[in-house]
Amino acid sequence: MKAHIVTLPGDGVGPEVTAAAVAVLKAVAERHGHVFAFEEQLIGGAAIDACGEPLPAAALAACQAADAVLLGAVGGPKWSDPNAPVRPEQGLLALRAALGVYANLRPLQVHPALAELSPLKNERLQRVDVLFVRELTGGAYFGARTRSADAATDECKYTVAEIERVVRRAFELARDRRRQLTSVDKANVLETSRLWRSTVQRVAADYTDVTVEHQLVDSMAMLLLTRPSAYDVVVTENLFGDILTDEAAALAGSLGLLPSASLGDGKAGLYEPIHGSAPDIAGKGVANPVGAILSAALLLRHSFGLDIEAAAVEAAVDAVLRDGPHSRDIGGSAGTTEVLAAVLAALDALADSATAFPSGARACG
Ligand code: NAD
Ligand code: IPM
Ligand code: MN
Q1: Measured from the CA of 239, which atom of ligand 2 is nearest?
Q2: What is the model's pTM?
């Protein structure tokens, strides 16, 4: 297939991990006979420095015309003055809104080879396989804000339509998995959460084959630590999803491991690791590229329908997490490019073994 991918490396470790993800996509294209055209654009602090705004019109137009967008990370201390008139993160939020990518998929699995790194006991990590579906274009992130000398407000607003479309997407995803949906809210306090819960209850009538439960977000934060393997698809609003998925990443061993896919109603999507610009390690060549590389795999699957290619990338990452080399955040000493080289080598090795044993038979011994 032919496709046009816009890359937005952004700030901090963003360019380092995006370069790794692009290298993997180029290797996939070459091996499978696809033509991917890449176009790099500015976002975040890099865009503020170059043009004074965090999402220049040219970058937005390119993203809107693209088949998929691959983003690194935005933000950093240079642009974090609380009184700054404009912030890198505004560029990312504007992009999510403009692309209409309301459903942010954040899969969590715990690789057995990394179980020792998790703060949780090994037995609690068996069979952890959760898909978080975070609402991405509503709630407190997009409400009106006020600020005076001694007070501030952030409006949290949701419409039924905004809730219903992301909840339906979560139900559909649950149907392709273990058919369990956990909806997370704060319905004991927040009106938006009561609207959320009643919308989930109404929509559930269309998905009677999916088991639904409701959890309050404070309790869910605890349950993720005590019985993470009990959850299949978890759907929640924007802010709760942001917080719960960083917690989930810690279970997996590092924030550097988790990918995400942000989807709307069309095929095009925005793909980014869930981590930020990691200012403490930026520029050192040590960032873990796995979250970005797995985001590229999600791009292949969700925007291009290339399931075999996506699975090959995931299998290559799986092999590297099993055999090393590992980056520092997961207990190793390898740099970003060393991990990338190992993923590319694993991709080659897996493809060669698939050719040698085309029926799926495994070599003996
Ligand atoms: P962060 O995710 O950047 O870093 C948190 C910790 O995780 C740091 O110790 C960092 O070194 C580590 N880490 C993150 N990614 C890693 C990787 N790939 N490999 C190894 N270690 C990794 O969070 P923060 O420090 O709270 O935020 C820094 C900046 O990033 C802020 O400006 C924030 O707004 C921004 N941010 C951007 C995004 C995004 O662009 N999607 C996401 C989260 C945070
Ligand atoms: C994320 C980030 C962003 C968010 C920030 C940078 C706006 O934390 O993608 O998880 O809060 O959505
Ligand atoms: Mn976040």
Answers
A1: 11
A2: 0.96
